[in-house]
Design goal:
Helix content: 25-40%
Cofactor: FAD
CATH class of the largest domain: Alpha Beta
Protein name: FAD-dependent oxidoreductase
Organism: Zwartia hollandica
Keywords: FAD, Flavoprotein, Oxidoreductase
Number of strands: 21
CATH superfamily of the largest domain: FAD/NAD(P)-binding domain
Number of domains: 2
CATH topology of the largest domain: FAD/NAD(P)-binding domain
InterPro entries: FAD-dep_OxRdtase_2_FAD-bd, FAD-oxidoreductase_2, FAD/NAD-bd_sf, Succ_DH/fumarate_Rdtase_cat_sf
């Protein structure tokens, strides 16, 4: 990296803290910092109106644990053999108990999810400490995010949209991070950070090169979350010698439709939602055979095998194959704006009879299964054999192959249809390693001075993941990062 003399830099703007990324972690960091008396400039890659990262399009829950001891026990159990340092477990478990108190202090209204829904691993020790909350009297999409965004706007926090950070500025003598280079509408600008820079810009779920390099089991994977999360924080931290951790962990895969027209994936109702359409449906891999329970319920991409949890297999290409009865039964896509970038931000209206998508080529069709196999370049006779075996399972009343119990109906008459499915995920968990002070560290454990992180960029979750944990972690480590950075003496 080019060495820069800080005395020769022309600064275009100055603040105590520069926060890179306006999502849940960025909001928590900025709010905590200004309430401690610091000035903050927040940079976001997205245009105004599309900020918020994955926090905006998640299901809006956040974790608040009941005891530090229980939270630590549960996190250690989630990690299993993929352990994290116990000082990190300790500070995480202590801060996660304070999320409701903090949210209330900034104008939030914490409400617990009813019936403890979604405690993903209730059999693990410490699970009784897990409590999922949201802001307000309903669990509505983006409601928690809207409260956070309003809390930011109500405070003296400067937000610059369409202004991604491209490089960190480091003093070559002290190794301190003293600012960032950002790009605003094609112009490079230098922003001074008198006390520190906090990276809160999410993961690399929309960077196919990083996905190929770091994620196992998927040749490619597309996000259902923010398309602006392209691994910028990973790259910038690595340029300064940061260590990485948890790079192979991600909230996925699921199976979804990805088309060039839209940057994020479409969840297929027949796979993920409660509606039970008529007709036969299976998902096949490149050999034309089934490979899983199509109505699976993963735990953020993990499925159980022989008492252990592993990532869902996704042999590509994959196809959801179905008959005319299912085609006639209504839209195969669930567009309710409850989660996901496509549903909440893009707002695509799927046709009621699926014919518009058939016309776009998103759905393929052929008069027979043999012809459909040829169209999809699947082995000759494979779809006929798979459908025959499926119909025999339905007649016998049990799926001996994968134990599927939902949408347990036979294939009927053609024509037949197929949708190509891709591996999909909401977010990655990996990134630069942080310590208990939210400082980004080198491989030897020493911190890179004045550089911090919070949120999904270098998350504490090393393998198994508890839903709402990421937003809870955004709040917790956003507060820690802000406190650590504000405590620094300004370098100028």
């Amino acid at each position: 990296m080019k060495q820069i003399n800080p005395q020769n830099i022309t600064w275009d703007a100055t603040a105590d803290l520069v926060v890179v990324g306006f999502g849940g972690a960025g909001a928590a960091t900025a709010i905590t910092a200004v309430e401690a008396g610091a000035s903050v400039i927040m940079l976001d890659k997205a245009p105004e109106g599309q900020e918020g990262g994955n926090t905006r399009v998640a299901a809006q829950g956040y974790l608040n644990t009941s005891t530090p001891e229980g939270a630590a026990t549960y996190l250690n159990a989630l990690c299993g053999p993929y352990t994290v340092p116990q000082d990190m477990v300790k500070v995480w478990s202590e801060e996660m108990c304070k999320n409701n108190e903090w949210l209330t202090s900034i104008g939030g209204d914490p409400q617990e999810h009813q019936h403890k829904v979604g405690i993903e691993f209730p059999d693990l020790p410490g699970a009784d400490s897990v409590h999922k909350f949201h802001h307000g009297d309903i669990l509505g999409y983006s409601k928690t995010w809207e409260m956070l965004a309003e809390a930011v706007r109500a405070r003296p926090i400067e937000v610059r949209y369409e202004c991604p950070a491209t490089r960190l500025i480091q003093d070559p003598l002290t190794q301190e991070v003293i600012g960032v280079v950002a790009n605003h509408k094609g112009k490079s600008i230098n922003i001074k950070a008198r006390k520190g820079v906090v990276l809160t810009c999410g993961g690399f779920e929309n960077n196919q090169e990083m996905i190929r390099n770091y994620l196992t089991g998927v040749p490619y994977c597309y996000t259902s979350g923010s398309p602006f999360n392209e691994g910028d924080g990973v790259r910038m931290a690595m340029e300064l010698g940061a260590d990485l951790w948890h790079m192979n962990n991600f909230a996925g895969p699921s199976m979804a439709l990805k088309v060039p027209d839209y940057p994020t994936t479409f969840s297929m109702m027949a796979l993920h939602f409660s509606h039970e359409p008529a007709g036969g449906m299976v998902v096949v891999g490149p050999d034309g055979k089934r490979f899983t329970d199509e109505k699976y319920k993963t735990r953020h991409g993990k499925v159980e095998h022989h008492g252990k949890w592993y990532a869902l297999r996704t042999p590509c290409p994959m196809y959801m194959v179905f008959d005319q009865a299912m085609m006639n039964d209504g839209p195969i896509y669930d567009g309710k704006p409850t989660h996901g970038w496509t549903q909440i931000m893009s707002g695509y209206t799927w046709s009621k009879d699926n014919k518009a998508e058939l016309g776009k080529g998103w759905i393929k069709t052929a008069p027979t299964l043999e012809a459909l196999a040829k169209l999809l370049d699947l082995p000759e006779g494979s779809l006929d054999q798979t459908a025959t075996r499926w119909n025999a399972s339905v007649a016998a009343g049990t799926d001996a192959d994968f134990g599927r119990t939902k949408m347990f109906q036979p294939f009927g008459a053609g024509p037949f249809y197929a949708v190509e499915l891709s591996p999909s995920m909401l977010n990655t968990q990996g990134g630069p390693r942080r310590n208990a002070r939210a400082e980004i560290v080198r491989p030897d454990g020493t911190p890179i001075p004045r550089l911090y992180s919070a949120g999904e960029l270098g998350s504490i979750f090393s393998y198994l993941y508890q839903g709402t944990g990421n937003i809870g972690e955004c709040f917790a480590f956003g507060r820690i990062a802000a406190r650590s950075a504000v405590a620094q003496k300004a370098w100028s």
